[in-house]
Amino acid sequence: YCSEHCWNVLQHNRQLLEQSTMETNNNSQFMLSVYATKSLNRKRKKLPENENENNNNEHSCHQPKNKRQKTEINAPSLEAIPENKEQDTEIEKIATVNNINEEKKNDEVNEENVWKKSRKVRRLYFCANFPTLVITPVKGRMLLSASSLVRFMGLDQNYIRLKVKAHTHSASWRTLYVHLSKEIQTSELEDISKRFNDIHSKQSVRNDAKDGNEVQFVTPKCSIFQKTYSEEAKKKRLEDVNNPDVNRYVLLKNINLRESEKEIISSLEEYKYKIQECKRFKGLPIVKVLMSSAEDVKRILSDNNIFIGYQKVKCEIFDQNRRRPRKSFKQCRKCHGLNHIANECNKKPVCKYCGRINHNSTQCKFKKSPKKYQCVLCKGNHRSDSLICPKTQEIRQKLGIAFTRRENEIINRKKDQNNNQNQKGNHAAAKPKKNPNEQVQTKVQIMNKQKLAPSQQPEHKNNPRNQLESINNFGKQTQTRNINKKDIGNHYSFDSHENDEIAFLRSEVASLKSTINKMNLLLNKLMPFIENKLDNGDSNDFSKNMNSNANDTTDETMDQW
Q1: What does the H/E/C string look like for 61-85?
Q2: Contact indicator for 175, 138 with CB cutoff of 8 Å
Q3: Domain-by-domain residue ranges, the chain?
Q4: 237-317: what fold?
Q5: Which of 15-29, 331-345, 508-522 comes out lowest in average pLDDT?
Q6: Is 114-228 in CATH node 3.30.300.30?
Q7: What is the spatial distance between Cα 301 and Cα 251, in angstroms, rounded to a whole number?
Q8: Whether 170 contacts 118, CB under 8 Å
Q9: pLDDT for res 233
Q10: Which residues fall within 8 angstroms of residue 530, CB to CB, at 6 or more apart?
């Protein structure tokens, strides 16, 4: 159908081209090429005024007849496929079920995805599903490949390679777990473990004969894995650690970092202890010491009066496999929930300040207003990641995670701040509120006092001399008050001394200003009298009178003038 339709379209196009070429040859001398894109400079025809707007829009550009005409292919329209909502919903359900099954397969540990999991998960899976042999102690990092394992076992290589399924290691790399195929029986496991122990016991005897019992070689031992093996291994390890015949390493704590290893050995030899090795932990006040005999180990552990570099030393037995319990408090930084991390979180991000979802914590309006904080966990007036939150404190107590010294300081500081804010709020609520009418009356009285007439004003404001005396008296009063404070409490500070000096200087400046003003007034009154005398020729008599009365001038005469 498609081929026939295309053939018909081609024939129709050819006919149109032939017609256009015939018209151009008959009507005009010029002909446009098929590939011409440049428009000709011809006059456009004027369109009639009474045409509709639609026709104007369609025929806005008049094309000449000589140009190629466009042809449109009207292909038959395909029928729309009817939509079935029921089928779509069924398909979506099937897809969701398949996704869930795939997730479960990924979560479940199988032989296919075991090797993508952690070392601990691998070990637990193989120990639960396959018969295993346990070999300790071992340098596990030297036994990663299958060929190295076969050489280490020392048995028939063809036999072991067929039987061994996999091998795993412990967290400390000191125990080796050899997982065999399911077809093997318990009798075969016992035979393999016996042969392994016989071979390695002979090798240890040869080494002892060569070295003359100077170094003790710990031979690896093989046993069949059981479910209670981990508990039994822990008990045995604790017994070996606390046994001084097996473990002769001791930890010495509280030693100064400046003390060298030679100085530590010489100071311990003064207490009559024989030491083989001494190793310091870098950047820590702890030293590991290997004692020469079990008696020295017992004696140093019981001795509580050992001093190295004028510091008392604490002694403990050294446990090589000791680890701190992994107790971790998890809080999400995305939704601020508990017992998960942000990478594992599928929820929407929540603001740690106001507890809302529609914005990020960096863009929160209430970032600098702690009164409007709201916790996501307990709905309290604090941040969601705060140490004050009671839910976080409960969970940390259950896990046995104690607060550090720094965290305790932060908690106490925040509690003090909250208590101070509550006390301020209580005081503000306890104060009686004044009536607005009384406040208005007091303001009116103050304004009336400021607008008094000059006759009603106090005297010290009108009289400049009284003003000077009041300033001088104020300076003297401040001096006497400060002196009394000094005598009573002996708390005469440098600031109070400066304030006294400033007050005294201000009083002197005011007095000088007043005298200058008086002198100016006196000169203004004397100038006309002097000019009259000079004009009359009595200058000598006036100068004599002035010289005679110069010594008799006082403040009273100045005030009179």
Answers
A1: CCCCCCCCCCCCCCCCCCCCCCCCH
A2: yes
A3: 114-228, 237-317, 342-423, 463-539
A4: Alpha-Beta Plaits (3.30.70)
A5: 15-29
A6: no
A7: 10
A8: no
A9: 76
A10: 542
